[in-house]
Amino acid sequence: MGKLTNTYRNESVHDNCVFIQNRWFHIELCYSGCVDSVLFTTPLLLKLHTAHTIHVLSSTPALVSSTPFSAFLHKHCPVVSERFSPTPWCWGGRLQTLVCAVLKSRPPVTYRNELISTVDGGQISLDWMDNKDSATYPESSTRPTVLILPGLTGNSRQSYVLHALNQATRRGYRCVVFNNRGLGGEELLTPVTYCAANTSDLEHVVHHIKGLYPSAPVLGAGVSLGGMLLLNYLARKRTESGMVAGFTISVPWNALKSAATMEEPLNWLLFNRYLTAGLCNAVTRHRKVLEKVVDINFVLKAQTIREFDERFTSLMFGYKSCSDYYFDASPDNKLHNTAVPILCLNAADDPFSPQHAFPLTTIQSLPNVALLSTAHGGHIAFLQGLFPRGESYMECLFGQFVQAAFEHPQDIRKACGIKDEQRS
Predict the structure, then answer these.
(1) By the number of CB atoms within 10 A of the CB, which of 40, 91, 194, 196 ranks highest?
(2) Where would I find the Ig-like domain in this sequence (predicted)?
(3) Is there a single domain that holds both residue 113 and residue 174?
């Protein structure tokens, strides 16, 4: 029995050897005149190889945090201490990201939509999952609320949002999804959209939620660009955020470094151009309103996210350059201003958020921020199991952290060095 490598399907027989090549493995076997015996043992070899692959790829995620916060997480979020085993046939960051987009299931959800007006005459679409049948929190006024912020062009229909909703609602909590302007199916009433650095709409939404349920704690959960927005908001509002904790998945820590990574040829081919097309489609959908402030035809010629941000986002929000916008949008330089417990999940092989941009030194010096990093997982994927259609590692971690923050508020504040008078 010989070597295992990563190639494609091709079977051939030469002399006294049979070569069986598969998309995920290559087995070279020697035999003595009987190919049938080799074929008979192949299923067993496949099982052994799969088990070997899972063992090799699985590892315990690295947790960077203060000692007290780490102890809290290990006690109340057991998945932190467990080995993460990515899907054995889908473990590379790019492949995890692509497969997740295609295979991940979308649980059925019935939302209650609410449109709220903004001070500039615009409107924001909120999708609520009220969870009125919650046995744990039957009283609506005190039912904990999870505020979910989707990614770059995402909304409440994304698979990761729907699975997160399931995790939260089955624990008895209420959920509300904050759709960025123009992405929730609503009309754009003013020539203003959204960006990772502008937190005014999020502040308005939090104020609205707290006005409806002043006695209900709120936890913010942001995904990708939604995570950037959440962290920037928590840094600017500090002790006045109105949130008890924050959770992020696959946040790009440094926008400039993420842009550079996304412009690498393969990443541009697989991801960047499609995301840019999605941004351009959103502009086209609201063309009549947006053409008052930008050159639409010039914007629609953008081939990368950076070009789009140069021609559209940075101009709309008053930045002198795209570099200025990216610096302002990057949460890595603001973490020290946050004042609530925050857990962040990233993968080292994320093609959107490069590992060298993780602010490890900063996080090590902060009592209230923790970064959990897996070796594999891609961008908003973290797939596991042979058929990764259901809940993944990121949703399991999300559910456990949300429950820990809501059910043990005093313990988590103490672990993060937050005094009661600092409470949001």
Answers:
(1) 196
(2) 78-193
(3) yes
Summarize pLDDT for 255-280 with one digit per residue, the tens.
Answer: 999 999 999 999 999 999 999 999 99
Tell me how far apart the alpha carbons of residues 122 and 338 are, in angstroms, rounded to a whole number.
Answer: 29
Is 376 found in the same domain as 346? yes
For the chain, the first-to-last Cα distance in angstroms comes to 62
Distances 142 to 24, 210, 214, 326 between C-alpha atoms, Å? 51, 11, 8, 38
* Cα dihedral 403, 408, 410, 415 in deg (nearest 10): -80
For residues 205 and 100, membership in a common domain is answered with yes
Is 292 part of a structural domain of the chain?
Answer: no
* Pairing, β 26-30 against β 123-129: unpaired
Cβ neighbours of 18 (radius 10 Å) = 20
Ordered strands of the 17-21 beta sheet = 4-5, 26-30, 17-21, 10-14
| Phi, psi of 229, rounded to the nearest 5 degrees | -60, -45
The residue range of the domain holding 33 is 4-57
Q: How far is CA 209 from the centre of its chain?
A: 23
| 16 neighbors 28 (Cβ within 8 angstroms) | no
Scored b (16 or more CB within 10 A) or e, 204-240 reads bbbeebbeebeebbbbbbbbbbbbbbbbbbbbbbeee
Residues recognised as catalytic? 224, 350, 379
Average pLDDT over residues 40-45: 44
Token pair 């295979």 is at which residue?
103
DSSP bridge pairs for 114: 126
Rounded Cα distance, 197 and 173, in Å: 29
Q: Say how many domains are in the chain.
A: 2
137 & 228 share domain: yes
How many C-alpha atoms does 332 have within 13 Å on its Cβ side? Answer: 20
pLDDT in tens, 277-309: 999 999 999 999 999 999 999 999 999 999 999
Tokens found for residue 309 = 């941000």
* Shared domain check, 126 and 77: yes
- Burial of 54: CB neighbours in 10 Å, binned 0-12, 13-18, 19+: middle
